[in-house]
Design goal:
Chain lengths: 115, 113
């Protein structure tokens, strides 16, 4: 199983709403990532969790709050977003470095629209 | 800081052509390099991964090469088909502890019948 599952696939939310994006993998990967992708741009790294601990925060605004409740799950809590936060949010996972391969696997993304 | 550049930015070809997509990276101290395919509005599908100790990887009609010393990777697509139309992204994974993929801007490919 090389699948990363993201839910929901689409989300429309108002600027005062609170919502969460979810990501799940069962490959035993101990590194999980959140990326944001705007149209016709490459994915931009937001957060990295390594062994369920936040290891990298790319200066992301506090209206985005990540959570890693266990080694298979990654959440992104959203609150008071702006229209410019509308984007495709991608989750990825990989082995932590040191193995022979550190291949990253991505989910299909959540298309977020903030109105 | 690692920077990844992909050339060309866009490519439109007739079906059946052999294609070369280029990726260059500024820091040769990479752990591996990975090529992805992305269909519009969708996630990334891993195509090939080349470890730093390898020179190339093949999967079906796809062949990827890696020249670490010159900071270049090439994705070769043989006998292109309309179903190959997508954006192709390369990502260099830096060594030195972080193992974070850094993406290029991608090559948008259209293969027309």
């Amino acid at each position: 199983d090389t699948e990363v599952t993201q839910t929901p696939k689409h989300l429309v939310m108002g600027m005062t709403n609170k919502k969460s994006l979810k990501c799940e993998q069962h490959m035993g990967h101990r590194a999980m990532y959140w990326y944001k992708q705007k149209a016709k741009k490459p994915p931009e790294l937001m957060f990295v969790y390594s062994y369920e601990k936040l290891s990298i925060n790319e200066s992301v605004p506090s209206r985005f709050s990540p959570e890693c409740p266990n080694s298979s799950l990654l959440n992104l809590h959203l609150h008071a977003l702006q229209p410019e936060d509308s984007a495709l949010y991608l989750c990825a996972s990989s082995q932590v470095g040191g193995g022979r391969k550190t291949e990253a696997f991505f989910g299909q993304g959540t298309r977020l629209t903030v109105v | 800081k690692q920077e990844v550049t992909q050339i060309p930015a866009a490519l439109s070809v007739p079906e059946g052509e052999n294609l070369v997509l280029n990726c260059s990276f500024t820091d040769s101290a990479i752990y591996n390099l990975q090529w992805f395919r992305q269909d519009p509005g969708k996630g990334l599908t891993s195509l090939l991964l080349i470890q730093s100790s390898q020179r190339e990887q093949t999967s079906g009609r796809l062949n990827a090469s890696l020249d670490k010393s010159s900071g270049r990777s090439t994705l070769y697509i043989a006998a292109s088909q309309p179903g190959d139309s997508a954006t192709y992204l390369c990502a260099a994974v830096a060594s030195g502890g972080s193992y974070i993929p850094t993406f290029g801007r991608g090559t948008s490919l259209i293969v027309h019948p």
